[in-house]
UniProtKB/TrEMBL annotation:
Quaternary assembly: Homodimer.
PROSITE patterns cross-referenced by the UniProt entry: PYRIDOX_OXIDASE (PS01064)
Name of the protein: Pyridoxine/pyridoxamine 5'-phosphate oxidase
Binding annotation for substrate: 13-16, 71, 128, 132, 136, 196-198
Note accompanying the cofactor annotation: Binds 1 FMN per subunit.
Organism (species): Ewingella americana (strain ATCC 33852 / DSM 4580 / CCUG 14506 / JCM 5911 / LMG 7869 / NCTC 12157 / CDC 1468-78)
Cofactors, names only: FMN
HAMAP family according to UniProt: PdxH (MF_01629)
Functional note: Catalyzes the oxidation of either pyridoxine 5'-phosphate (PNP) or pyridoxamine 5'-phosphate (PMP) into pyridoxal 5'-phosphate (PLP).
Residues involved in FMN binding: 66-71, 81-82, 87-88, 110, 145-146, 190, 200
Record-annotated Pyridoxamine 5'-phosphate oxidase N-terminal domain positions: 38-164
Domain of life: Bacteria
Length: 225
């Protein structure tokens, strides 16, 4: 404790001893390693292993962060869904640059992604929306995300009203609800190490020439901790 009875955060530390990451462990592309780590996070029964911090920037250069859930990933990118009137969606409409962070700290791991976000097609959004539980579908209708409200009761009353309205049929897709696919420009893997000698490797997308034709490859570098 400090003199003013505040908790001394400077004294909070531990050793990272859960393993290392070596260049020989790395595949040629980042997605297989990301998938392997994600599966291990799920198998370890971490709380919300698909949760990721999403960082966007407003028109003044002010960054904002929030946590959302990863809902799909493949070689095209990483996908999440949101209200299109939300602060994050409005900021991405003006500046598509985005950063993602998976904080798997219980495994002494982080994965950081830098890329660009692109709106999903209506067909893709409809397919995912139809797969959600009905109460979650109704919840998407209730909230005008990021707007100010007077009390929680406003949301609860609206939810009950819409639950009654849609009780006998399917819940339609709101026009203001959608998703984004983040194409990956770089992906960094961080594995905690003893004595703060962490292992960090970054994959950066680059254009290479193969048989006279441009193709996309990945440059891999080890970073100092």
């Amino acid at each position: 404790m400090t003199d003013n009875n505040e908790f001394d955060v400077s004294a909070s530390r531990r050793e990272y001893t859960r393993g290392g990451l070596r260049r020989g462990d790395l595949p040629a592309e980042p997605l297989p390693l990301f998938e392997h780590w994600l599966k291990q996070a799920c198998e370890a029964k971490l709380a919300d292993p698909t949760a990721m911090v999403v960082a966007t920037v407003d028109e003044n250069g002010q960054p904002y962060q929030r946590i959302v859930l990863l809902k799909h990933y493949d070689e095209k990118g990483l996908v999440f869904y949101t209200n299109l009137g939300s602060r994050k969606a409005q900021q991405l409409a003006n500046n598509s640059h985005i950063s993602l962070l998976f904080p798997w700290h219980m495994l002494d791991r982080q994965v950081a992604v830098i890329g660009r976000a692109e709106r999903l097609s209506t067909l893709e959004v409809m397919k995912y929306f139809a797969s959600r539980p009905k109460d979650s579908q109704i919840g998407a209708w209730v909230s005008q995300q990021s707007t100010r409200i007077s009390a929680r009761g406003v949301l609860e009353s609206k939810f009950l009203e819409l639950k009654q309205k849609f009780s006998q049929g399917e819940v339609p897709l709101p026009s203001f609800w959608g998703g984004f696919r983040v194409s990956v420009d770089s992906m960094e893997f961080w594995q905690g190490g003893e004595h703060r000698l962490h292992d960090r490797f970054i994959y950066q997308r680059e254009t290479v020439s193969t048989a006279g034709q441009p193709a996309t490859g990945w440059k891999i570098d080890r970073l100092a901790p």
